């Protein structure tokens, strides 16, 4: 606990909480001075807390609606995403600075406190501005009593910088290195533990992997094979050729890629380079016999299906795309217009298909722990209890894929997660039960460094600049 905390939790008598003053009472001291960037940030954080919204979907709409642009928009974005990512660390600090448990603090006040604490600990916003602007927001939303409380808590936060607070609230680094790294990089402990197990590290690689979740990902585009080359796409967009995917382009900065003419005309699309590489790996693995019927068993919203469909068109093959959710199946249809792709709404575990496919992709539903940098709040929303149910579904889908592929045919199992229970755990068990052969998948990622001991491939943001995609290619026994 912070020594300056005025009334320790244990000494507080339990008594009914007073209702907050009416919302419209601005308090006697001064009228609230709302800053549009911080208001947009707080309103987005409220939507994340109240209705499980995605910050990166809510905020752009709010900015547009309120005509917030330029530096204000940049500030709102930085504060919103930064606060959502750092939530666990901010909560630990706020708990140390508050004389009541966080669970007893009004949601709206707590979200504002997080926003204020984030500015104090992780930005260069002057402390007085961070405190005053947050107190103004709280006063406007919850009145002067709550504003006084927020002011007191945030003043305690100003007592130390981030490093000082980490020393105080994190587990001991020597005896619990994973717990320490989890707190200092603002990750739930179970996520840090899962990364540590996948990396085989509790040291620098783990720190780098966790830190990479706080970096803003560069937009990756894919030049649709047969329509436009990566060189042409790079020249049109001013981007750089991707280091590993022959179809990939990295966009330097700024702007909404959906506004690009090449994207609107479907010559290119937004797709992480790791996703491109995993879909390509399936097509690169050598196959004896026929090679004309491909299947994507979990295809929505259609990113990999569009790439596979374009490659299928170039090699006289066809692709069947299965998706359980009708609206996502519709997205596949849109993404694959003009390609030899047949979309079917079905459960991939029993899709009612004849089988006999030459190549099958299983891009299974997963925790998404490999793409935490894309969804600011995701690390706090996922629960360790999600993993077992997903792993069961993943095993069933992979088993179904091996059933649908012809003898000697190939299956790529892909997830956007490094969690061992979703990756090697699934592949090892299904391979054992079905007798499928695990190929050295690293061979189908030519030029990509640091792929470990194989046979599977685990990509990492801090190593490869991609999402943490996992890929294993299996062959059904002939
Ligand atoms: C990781 S996403 C696939 C991403 C896609 N391959 C792409 O590149 O755009 C997994 C998809 O599987 C779908 N899904 C979930 N359970 C399924 C099931 N039992 N059968 C088929 N699809 C399922 C989800 O709706 C989701 O669209």
Automatic annotation (TrEMBL):
GO terms for molecular function: RNA binding; RNA methyltransferase activity. Residues 12-23 have a biased composition (Basic residues). This is Fmu (Sun) domain protein. Residues 1-11 have a biased composition (Low complexity). InterPro entries: MeTrfase_RsmB-F_NOP2_cat, MeTrfase_RsmB-F_NOP2_dom, NusB-like_sf, NusB_RsmB_TIM44, RCMT, SAM-dependent_MTases_sf. Pfam families: Methyltr_RsmB-F (PF01189), NusB (PF01029). Belongs to the class I-like SAM-binding methyltransferase superfamily. RsmB/NOP family. Residues 1-38 are annotated as: Disordered. GO terms for biological process: regulation of DNA-templated transcription; RNA methylation. Keywords: Methyltransferase, RNA-binding, S-adenosyl-L-methionine, Transferase. S-adenosyl-L-methionine binds at residues 298-304, 323, 347, 363. It comes from Actinosynnema mirum (strain ATCC 29888 / DSM 43827 / JCM 3225 / NBRC 14064 / NCIMB 13271 / NRRL B-12336 / IMRU 3971 / 101). May act as RNA methyltransferase. The active site is at residue 416. PANTHER family: NOP2 YEAST -RELATED NOL1/NOP2/FMU SUN DOMAIN-CONTAINING, RIBOSOMAL RNA SMALL SUBUNIT METHYLTRANSFERASE B-RELATED. Residues 195-477 form the SAM-dependent MTase RsmB/NOP-type domain.
């Amino acid at each position: 606990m912070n020594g300056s905390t005025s009334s320790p939790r244990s000494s507080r008598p339990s008594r009914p909480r007073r209702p907050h003053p009416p919302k419209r009472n601005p308090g006697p001291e001064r009228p609230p001075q709302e800053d549009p960037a911080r208001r947009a940030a707080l309103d987005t954080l409220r939507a994340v807390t109240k209705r499980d919204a995605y910050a990166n979907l809510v905020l752009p709409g709010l900015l547009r609606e309120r005509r917030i642009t330029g530096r204000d928009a940049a500030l709102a974005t930085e504060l919103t995403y930064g606060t959502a990512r750092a939530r666990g660390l901010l909560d630990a600090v706020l708990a140390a600075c508050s004389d009541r448990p966080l669970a007893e603090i009004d949601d709206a006040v707590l979200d504002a406190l997080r926003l204020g604490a984030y500015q104090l600990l992780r930005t260069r916003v002057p402390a007085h501005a961070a405190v005053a602007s947050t107190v103004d927001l709280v006063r406007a939303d919850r009145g002067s009593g709550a504003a006084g409380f927020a002011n007191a808590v945030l003043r305690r936060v100003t007592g130390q910088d981030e490093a000082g607070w980490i020393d105080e609230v994190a587990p001991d680094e020597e005896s619990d290195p994973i717990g320490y790294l989890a707190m200092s990089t603002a990750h739930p402990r179970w996520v840090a533990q899962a990364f540590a197990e996948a990396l085989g590290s509790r040291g620098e690689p783990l720190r780098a992997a966790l830190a990479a979740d706080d970096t803003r990902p560069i937009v990756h585009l894919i030049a649709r094979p047969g329509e436009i080359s990566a060189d042409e796409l790079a020249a049109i967009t001013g981007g750089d050729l991707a280091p590993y995917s022959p179809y990939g382009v990295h966009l330097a900065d700024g702007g909404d890629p959906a506004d690009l003419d090449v994207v609107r005309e479907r010559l290119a699309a937004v797709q992480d380079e790791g996703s491109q590489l995993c879909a390509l790996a399936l097509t690169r693995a050598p196959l004896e016999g026929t090679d004309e019927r491909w299947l994507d068993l979990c295809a929505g919203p259609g990113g990999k299906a569009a790439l596979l469909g374009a490659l299928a068109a170039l090699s006289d093959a066809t692709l069947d795309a299965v998706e359980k959710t009708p609206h996502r199946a519709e997205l596949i249809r849109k993404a694959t217009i003009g390609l030899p792709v047949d979309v079917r709404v079905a459960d991939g575990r029993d899709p009612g298909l004849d089988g006999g496919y030459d190549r099958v992709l299983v891009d299974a539903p997963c925790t998404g722990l490999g793409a935490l940098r894309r969804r600011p709040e995701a690390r706090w929303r996922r629960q360790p209890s999600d993993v077992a149910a997903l792993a069961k579904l993943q095993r069933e889908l992979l088993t179904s894929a091996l059933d649908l592929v012809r003898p000697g045919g190939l299956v790529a199992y892909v997830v956007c997660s490094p969690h061992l229970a979703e990756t090697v755990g699934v592949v090892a068990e299904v391979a054992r039960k079905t007798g499928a052969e695990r190929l050295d998948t690293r061979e189908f990622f030519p030029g990509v460094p640091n792929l470990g001991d194989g046979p599977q491939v685990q990509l990492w943001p801090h190593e490869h600049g991609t999402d943490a995609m996992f890929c294993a290619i299996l062959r059904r026994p002939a």
